């Protein structure tokens, strides 16, 4: 690939108007990951050939790779106006998903499926659009069609599981999340969902197992720490709870939710001073807090009041004793014997 790019660049140095070489170079640069250079060459070509749908399509791909989704959308729409190719519609749909324009994505993927009725990826993306706008029946229909065509699509199984969970069909949800883990044993979100379902059903043993697995594969999963901490506190496992939150704080520093969870450990143990300090840190980190801020301020006032009351009941501190000047010790005279290193006289 590098050699091909060098050869094409050499051709263009001799003949900058060799459009075929520049077009081939643009595709080679795109494939090799030199996206910015590919974009520049494509823009150069489009100034000369503004109605070339293929060039506009490749420009859209370059913009997508550069995360410039609004420009990608515009390039794909211009390409479709010239030549309504299925690939152009598909990439436009992906761009709509990236832009969170899910309603616009629905007719686009339906258009792709008119030409390619067995394209599992289009069914998945159509299902995703419906899922994001909370039309779960339509989402489920398309995700199920996805797995009919490709049962190895772990993301389709994952979203099916989420829909069943949302609808309270927990046994069916568990079945889907277990399928996800069969396909991808380190998929942390499947472990989290299994853990949260087990917790909801009162199965704390399995909840602990799945939530620990979640954290193993994703140490940044804040919700897993919070639910696991709740279980430990309920069971009176304060040392494990404390170790858990300290580990979480290393992975996610300066997080208000974690300070609040830390505060609850001290509250449960009756350590008012540490409870109060942890609540104060919670307030300091309120920007990352998902618990109700006003209720935490109220709790901090409660801790302050208890601490103040406790300090009232403490006996007054004793007055410091007057400073005494130590007597001057007599210095050894030159004749004084040197202390033996063996005072017991042991040979």
Key structural traits:
single chain; 347 residues; mainly alpha; Serine Threonine Protein Phosphatase 5, Tetratricopeptide repeat; elongated
Write up what this structure looks like.
With 347 residues, this protein is mostly helical. Among the domains are: 186-253, Tetratricopeptide repeat domain (Serine Threonine Protein Phosphatase 5, Tetratricopeptide repeat, Alpha Horseshoe), CATH 1.25.40; 254-310, no CATH class. It is built from 18 helices and no strands. The chain has helices spanning 2-14, 19-32, 35-48, 53-65, 69-82, 86-98, 102-115, 120-132, 136-149, 154-166, 170-183, 188-200, 204-217, 222-234, 238-251, 256-269, 272-284, 293-313. The protein is elongated.
Rounded mean pLDDT score: 90
Oligomer: single chain
Shape: elongated
Poorly predicted runs are 328-347
Strand content: under 5%
Overall helicity: over 70%
The H-level CATH homologous superfamily of the domain at 186-253, spelled out, is Tetratricopeptide repeat domain
At the first level of CATH, the class of the domain at 186-253 is: Mainly Alpha
The total of beta strands comes to 0
Structural class: mainly alpha
So, CATH architecture of the domain at 186-253?
Alpha Horseshoe
C-alpha end-to-end distance:
85 Å
CATH topology label of the domain at 186-253: Serine Threonine Protein Phosphatase 5, Tetratricopeptide repeat
Instruction: Return Rg in Å.
Output: 34 Å
How many DSSP H or I helices?
Answer: 18
- Main sheet properties: none
